[in-house]
Amino acid sequence: MDRSSTSRSNSFAQNLSERSDIRLACFDGGGVKTLSQLVIMKEIMKEVRNRKYPHDPARRMLPSEEFDMIGGSDTGGLISIMFSRLQMSIEEVMDEFSIIVEKVYKPRFSHAIRRTQALRACLKDMFERRGWHLDCKLSEGWQESHCAGFCIVLSFNELRNQVCLRSYKTRQGLPSDITIIDAMLSTCASYPDFEPVTSSIGFEEQTFVGASLGANNPSGRLISEAHALYGGRAKVLSILSIGSGHLGNLTTPASGDDGSLKTLYQQMLSDGEVEAEETKMRTIESGIYFRLSVRHGMQGVEIAHENSDTRITAQAYAYLNDGETRQTVTDCVRSLAEAYGRVSLDNLMYTAARKPTYKAAPARTQHYIKRSGPWQALVNAISPDQHSQRVVIVAGMTGCGKTQLVTEILRQYNPERSRLFDHALFVDGSSEHSIKSDLITHVQFLTGMEGSRFEFEDAMAFFQRLNNRRWLIVYDNVDDIRIDIRSLLPRCDHGVVIITTRNQLLRTLASENSYLRLDVMSKDESIELIFRCVGNANPSDDERHAAAIIADKLGYLPVALAQAGCFIANEPCSCTHYLGLLSTHLAELMNSPAGDLQNLSAYAAFDLTYHRLPSVMQKLVNILSFFHYTDFPMAAIAHTAAHPQYIDAFPFESRDATHASAVNVVRDICSFASTRDNFAVFGINRMLQAYSLASLTLAPLTSLAYTHPLMREWAFNRMEPGQRIMFQEAACLILISCTDANHLHPYLPPHIIEVMARLPVDCLHINTRAGLGKLLRAASRWSESQTVWAPVHDMLQRKHGPMNLHVATAKLELAATYLDDGFVEMERLEKEVVGIRSKLLGIQHLDTLWAIEELSETLVRQDRYSDALIIKQGMLNELERQLKPNHPVILDAKRTLALLLKHLCRLSDAELIQREVMEEQKLQQGENHLKTIDAVWNLALTYCEWGRHQDSEPLLLKALEGKKKILGETHHDTLVAMTWLALNYHEQNRGIEAARLQLKVVEQRRKSWGPNNSYTVEALELLAAFYNSQNRFDDLEPLRVQLLKARWDVLGEEHPDTLIAMNNLALNYSNQSRHADAEALQVEVLSKRIRLEGEDTLDVATCMHNLAWTYHDTGRLQEAMVYATKAERICRSVLPADDPELVKTTRLIETINKSLKVANLTKNTASVDIQINVLITGKSFPLILFSLILLFFMPSFKETCTNAVLLWRSWVMWCLKWYLNWTGYGDCVNEFPL
C-alpha cells in the first residue's frame, strides 16, 4: 500500500526543524460537494506535471509526493487520508469518491446508522479490491512516510473538544492508534446524517463525530500541526486550501420556523470562509496562501439530490475557467516549484498583520482578599537576583486564587507605581500559541515594531538584552502538560518569571525557595471573603458561625466561597438559609456562576480540568469520588493491577452487565498502570499532580492521596445515576482486590465505609457487600464487618430459608466478626453451620469439617481446651479416613492440633506431632519451602514455651534464614522471627546480642511502617525492656521518649497506653537520678488517672506508689507516706492479702517509716546548739567512759537520767574531735554542732 516517492525524499527521519521547503494542503468538509475540491485538485496536479515534467505527460501524479502535509475535515478529511496515508493518485481518489457518492450520499436512508453502515461497506470494499488489510492502522509506517496526514473530528462526549487523528508523531502527541477505516468513518460522521463512530484506541474506546459543524475549515489546524511536526524555524513554501464552495448570503429565514433556523445554523457553523479570511490576513505579506473554492452554484446542494454530482462538477470546471482563478492556480503551482520558503512556521503561528495592542492582566475581582502568607512568600520570591534569572512557580488546584494573586502582584509592581521592574507583563499560558502570540504582541507594543515578519525569536531577544534586565513576566494558567514551558522562557541570567499552574510537577523549574504551593484559604480568610461578597461589614455572631460552617463544607476554596457570598448577596438571604440550601442543592449552587467580574463557578472550573484529562484518568476521578477524600492509598491501584479480583469470593447471586462494565473500567486503569509493582502507580500519581486533582503525601509502602472535598462532590454529581452504580462497583473491586494486602489494611476502612454510604445500600450487589465485609474483618474492623454481614445473612435467609449452603456461608462469616464478648453468639452460629452442612453435604464433607474446625477455634478462645481437643481429634480422624496419608489438609489439621496441645501444657505430645509435620513437609516440599520453614518455626516456639532455649535457638536461626530467603529481610514474618530469636538470646542471658538484634527489628519496622505504627511501637517496647534489664538507662531514655510520642500522636494524651508510656519514662528518669523530671511526669499521670478513672482504682494506686518512691528518694518523706498510705488502702480494698502489689506497697511504707526515724534522729542532733570551745582534755575522759558504761549496761539508768542522750552524743563528738586533733585537723573542731 505504501509507495516510495519518485520525485523527492521527504522522510521524517531527517532533521525536520531545518526544512525550508514545506508544502501544505488542506480540504474543507462538504459532503457530496467534495467533488468540486477533487476537480480543483486534479487541475493543480495537471499544472504541476506540466511544469515539472513537460516531457512526461502520462506521469502518474501523487499529491503525497508534492505536499509534505495534507489535512482535512469531514469528507475533506476522508480524501486527505486517501492522498497522504494511502498515497492514492487524484484519479484514484475521484473514482472511489464517486462510488461513495452513489452508494452513500445519493440514497435516502431511514436512519443515520444505515448511511454509516453503507459508508463502512464502501470503504471495506475499496480496501479488499486494492489488497489492503482491513485492520491497517493510521499510524503504521509513519516514520518512513513522505507525507503527513490528518483529519479533524469532535469528541461525542464534549463537542468543544477537537481531536486530531494523525498519521505521524509530533511534540503534542503520538500517532493515533486507530484503524484507517475507523478514522475515515469518524471524519465523515457529521450530524445528523451519520451515526457517531466508536473506535478502540489503545486500551480505550472513544466515540467521535465529524467536525463539519464548527471546524469545517482546517487551515488553522494545518498550520499548528505543521508547527508541532517541523518546529517553528522551518520555512513554508506554500499553503493550499481548497474549500467546498461559497454558501452565498446567509439571511434570517422569513418563516422563522424551527426547520429553517436549524438549516441556517448548520450553514453558519459549516461555513469555512471566515477561517479562510483570517488565514489570509495572517499571511497577507508573505503571499504563500492560496484559497480555491467555487464561488457560485453550490448553494442548496442536498445529500439526496439526484443530479447533484453532475451540477457540482460543472460548477467546478466553470470556476476554473475564471481568469482570477487561473491566476491563483498558476501562482500556487509556481510556489510549489520554488526551493526556499519565505515565512517561518513561528511567524505563521504567532503573528498577524493587525497592529499590536497592549494585553493587560485580567481585572482583579472586587472582593479580592490579600492572603498574607502566600502574598509575602511571593513577594520574597520575586526579588530580582543580580546573577541569575528568578523562576517562581505558583501551583495549586483550579479555583484556589492563583490568577488573582499574580494579578495583584502585577498591579503593585506596575512600572508606574514601582521602580523594581521596567516592564511587568501578563501572558496567557493556556497554550504554546497564546504564549508566543502574547509575548510577540507585548514586544511589538513596547518597541513599536509591527508586521507579520516579527517572530518569536525576536521577542526573546528583546528580553535577553543586557540593557533590559529588570522585567517581570507572568505566565498564567500553564496547565497543559504538553507545553514545554522551558523552551518558552527567555534564555538569560536576569529577569523574573512567575508561572501559575495546576501542574505540580513544574516545581523542578523553580529557583531556590521559589516554589509556592497555593492551598485553600484559612478559616478567617474564608469568612472574610464571604462577607465581603455579601457586603456585610458587621455580621452577627450567628451569621459568622453559619459562614464558618459554609466555608468548611466548601473546603475553603476561594472560587466556591465567592459563589456562596455572591448568591447570598443577590437573592438576598442569610448565611443560615444558604447553609440549609447547601445541604440539599450543592450541585445547583456550585454550577451557578458567581456574577462578579470573574463570573466563575467552582463546578465549571473543575469541568475545564476534567475535559483535559485522558479518558482513563476521567474514570479514575469518578472512582475516587466514592472514597473518603483523605488518605487513599495509591498502592491499592498497583496491588489491583497485580492481583485483580474479578471473580466473586462469595458468589451468592449472579451478576449483571453493570459488574462487567465496572470490571472493564478497572482493567482500563490497571492497563494504564501497566506494571505489577508500586512503580505502576507513579504514572497515575504524576497525572494527579499534573492536574492538581490530588495532593500526595508519603506513608510507609504507599503514597496517600488527598482530594479536595468539593472536587469529590463535583465528580460524583456530574455522573448519571447509572454511571454512579457502575463506578461504585469499580471502586469496590479495587478495595476487594486488596483483601490480602495486609500492609494497606490500616488505610482502607474509612474508604470502605464511605463507598458503602455513597449510594443507598440496595445499589450494592450482595456479592460486593460480602467482599467488603470480608475485607473489613481482614483489617480487624470487627464491628463494621458485623454490620455488613448481618443484613447479608438476613437477606439470604429470607430468600432461601435457613437450610441453604449460602446461608451457612454467611453464618460462618458473621460468626467470625464477633469478639471475646460474643462467644455465645459465635458458638451458636457455628453450630448451626455444622448442622446445615452436615445435613446437606454430610458430616464427612470438607466444608463441614472446616465449619467444625472454626467451632473448635471458638472453644479454644474460650479456654475450653478439652472440648476443642475432642472436636479436633475427631475431625483429624475423619480427614485421615477420607484423604491419603499426610495430605496437606491433614498436615494443617495436625498443626492446629499441636497448638491446642500446647494450650493444655502437653508440650511433649505437641513436640511429637510438630516433628512429624516438619519431617513430612521436608519430604513433600523440601527444606527450603515456606511450609517447611513454618513447621520448623512452630517447633521452635514450642521449645521456647518449654524453656528449652538452647534447643530452640538453632531452629529459630534456621527459620529466620529461610524466611529471609523466601520472603525477604523486610517482610513482617521475617521480623517476627528475628524478634523471637532476640527473646531467645535474652532468656539465655545474652543481653547484648538480644538488644543488637532487636535494634535491627526496630529500624526496619520504623522504615517500613513509620514511627507510630503498632508494629514499630511493639518492637520499641521490647528493645526498651532489654535495655532496662541491662540497666542501660541512658540508652533507654530516647526509646521511652519515642514511645511516649508515638502513643500521644496516635492515641491522644489521656489514653491509658499513653499514660503507661509517660509513667515508664518517669521511672527511667528516677533510675537516672533525675527526680525532678520524674516527679513532674508522675504528678501529671496521677492527676489524669484520677480524673479519668476516679481515686480507687489499681492504676491510681500504682501511680501513687511510684510517686511515693520519688518523694522518698528526694527526702520528702511526709508526702511519700501520704501517697504510700493511700496506695495501700486502695490495694487492700481490691486485692487479696498475699497479692504481690499489696506486699510491695506495704514494704514501701515500712521503708518510709525507717527513713522517718533516721531523719528525726538527725534532726534532733542538729538542733542541739552547743559548740565545743575548749580542747578535750584527759580529765573529762573518765566521766564520759563511766557514762558510756552506764548507757550500755544499765538501761534503767538510761531511762532515769535526763542527760543520757547528751552524754552519749558528747562521747561520740569527743571521739571524733579527738581523732581530728590527733590527725592534725584540729582547726575544724568548731564546725561540728552538738
Notable features of this structure?
single chain, 1234 residues, alpha/beta, Cytosolic phospholipase A2 catalytic domain, Rossmann fold, 9-stranded mixed β-sheet, 5-stranded parallel β-sheet, 51 helices, 17 strands, globular, disordered N terminus, disordered C terminus
Q: How would you concisely characterize the structure shown here?
A:
With 1234 residues, the chain is an alpha/beta fold. The chain has 51 helices and 17 strands. Helix 17 packs across helix 18 (541-553) and helix 34 (846-861) runs antiparallel to helix 35 (865-882).
Low-confidence stretches: 1-14, 1165-1181, 1193-1202, 1227-1234
Which bin fits the share of residues in helices?
55-70%
Overall pLDDT confidence? 83
Task: Write down the CATH class of the domain at 9-247 and 267-350.
Answer: Alpha Beta
Quaternary organisation of the protein chains: single chain
Instruction: Classify the beta-strand content into a percent band.
Output: 5-15%
CATH topology of the domain at 9-247 and 267-350: Cytosolic phospholipase A2 catalytic domain
The rough form would be described as globular
Q: What kind of sheet is the major sheet?
A: 9 strands, mixed
End-to-end Cα distance: 123 Å
Question: Can you count the beta strands?
Answer: 17
Identify the CATH homologous superfamily of the domain at 9-247 and 267-350. Cytosolic phospholipase A2 catalytic domain
Radius of gyration: 44 Å
The CATH architecture of the domain at 9-247 and 267-350 comes to: 3-Layer(aba) Sandwich
